[in-house]
Amino acid sequence: MGLELYLDLLSQPSRAVYIFAKKNGIPFELRSVELLKGQQHSDAFAQVNPLKKVPALKDGDFTLAESVAILLYLSRKYEVPDHWYPQDLQARARVDEYLAWQHTALRSSCTRAMWQKQMMFPVFLGEQVPPETLASTLAELDRCLQLLEDKFLKDQDFVAGPHISVADLVAITELMHPVSAGCQVFRSRPKLAAWRQRVEAEVGKDLFQEAHAAVMKVEDLPPADPAIKEKLKPSVQCLLQ
């Protein structure tokens, strides 16, 4: 059996892995794991990833969790163009710096914004979000966007320098989460908007749209089945805090 990628394109790190593999012509079997149906909690998936999260990778008898680890594994195994994860010590360090920062900063605020703003909690789970909670989340998102511009993007074309890297894929897939919930992430940020256009151009518009088609239709999701709602509630309740 060749390379298998366990993904749900509603998941931002799954989208980053999917775009990277497709863009670089890496052959893989897509194994769909529908998070909103609780399939990540199945015994079968737990054999692949006991953490019960996507993305996950299976390469023969080798399994791997965590999106950053998967992206770097793929970049090394398939000898993709150097700009994705540069050999140069300092250029690679800039990519690593962003990947280390985003986990507890942009990832958190983008996920919370999507779940809290008008869709996932209010519609899918039928939970009302206190206005002060949403306001705090959107303020934190704005702070993280400013840091993305000032600390990482600066006056460069891409997050870690003059060329696109895995850092840009991780960043753009995060930002499309609040965009799907109606947040105008790029409207008052011309530098960020121009960066998005460059990333889309490098990835290819068709692939970018393909990867984000599901999340951009998330507002059409019907309310969750009561059994699914109860199964998911413990794992998403932290997104209200």
UniProtKB/TrEMBL annotation:
Record bears the keyword Cytoplasm: yes
InterPro entries associated with the record: Glutathione-S-Trfase_C-like, Glutathione-S-Trfase_C_sf, Glutathione_S-Trfase, Glutathione_S-Trfase_N, GST_C, GST_C_Theta, GST_N_Theta, GST_Theta
An example Gene Ontology molecular-function term: glutathione transferase activity
Entries under CDD domains matching the protein: GST_C_Theta (cd03183), GST_N_Theta (cd03050)
Pfam families named in the record: GST_C (PF00043), GST_N (PF02798)
Source species, domain of life: Eukaryota
Main subcellular location: cytoplasm
Record localization: Cytoplasm
E.C. code: 2.5.1.18
Keywords carried by this UniProt record: Cytoplasm, Transferase
Reaction(s) this enzyme catalyzes, per UniProt: RX + glutathione = an S-substituted glutathione + a halide anion + H(+)
GST N-terminal domain mapped to chain residues: 1-82
Transferase found in the keyword field: yes
SUPFAM superfamilies linked: GST C-terminal domain-like (SSF47616), Thioredoxin-like (SSF52833)
Signal sequence, renumbered to the chain: none
GO biological process, one term: glutathione metabolic process
UniProt GO cellular component terms: cytoplasm
Domain named GST C-terminal: residues: 88-224
Subunit: Homodimer.
Family, similarity comment: Belongs to the GST superfamily. Theta family.
Protein name, UniProt field: glutathione transferase
Source organism of this protein record: Zalophus californianus (California sealion)
